[in-house]
Amino acid sequence: MKDRFNFNRDDVFNNLTRERLTELESVPRTGLRLVCDYLICLMPVLAGCMALAEYILIPNLRDNTSTQVYIYFIAALTAAAVIFFITAFKSRKTFYILRYKAPFYALVFILLAVYDYLTLKTGILVLPYFPWCDQILNAIIDDHAYLLDCAGNSILLLFSGYFYGAVLGLITGTACGCSRTADYWISPFMKLLGAIPSPTWIPVVMVIASSLFAGSVFIIALGVWYAMTIATMTGIRNIDRYFYDAAKTLGASRIQLVFHVALPFAVPNILQGLTQGMSSACMALITAEMVGVESGLGWYISWQKSWAQYGKMYAAIVLLCVIFVSVNWGLNRIKRYMLRWQERVSAFDYGAV
Questions:
Q1: Where are the domains of the chain?
Q2: Cβ-contact 66, 134 below 8 angstroms
């Protein structure tokens, strides 16, 4: 037991990983518990095989046709789960990740199988409103060029609004957090604009915007600006006044207090504001594309819906979800990297106990 906690502070900062810390905090595994853990890790593989069996063995409802695309899709996901499971035997990090996420991965396979059964196999969920998975996958393949073009335009619009909103939010949040005068003049507008939903601005934007693209950028930027301003202002106001006093004692000017004390200490809140702002931007993207842009996934969804092409509509929704998940994953990775010192501090506290 003594060797289990026999490490110094340098080991904490340099060698103690998240997985090692989890292992130290966990109860020693017995043989039975280890077997149960690996069975849980195997759940996605079993669920993937069940989804394949459901699609192959259960006959389709009369007049419902399908292709082999869905089989290849489920087989590829199941193969990835098998590789992940095999890697877990060799990598402790992979084992902890798979042990945590395996039930959710298994649930995804089960939901796919249930949806396929309710649509293709039984027709409980009827066409055209509920196309089966095979139809959606074929729609993605058949219209992939147009979908990729719309996705590129949506990404351009999303990040344009996000950039302007984040920059302006950082400026106004810093001003409100560091200056009572700025807070006096800006806060009332924040309370007013932040409470108004983005779709409300569509009639105004269509009149005053120089172009439809600029109006769409404004709608996205508005939500990002509000989230970023609140987060930055909150982070700066939560800084202990002793840090400002210490910096003033050392001769720091007002500008240095902002850039060397306020903003560095508010970085965790700023990064949280960036994450929340991206969520707001993603939700506002569909609304922004309703302004009248000529290309984009939101426009594509409305277009296909008007022609009752629900398979292509769902294909665009799936692609939109993939983009949103990928963007948020990237932001979380950046946030985790920039705040890695917080994990080190936690590990230091753990070692100091």
A1: 3-138, 144-352
A2: yes
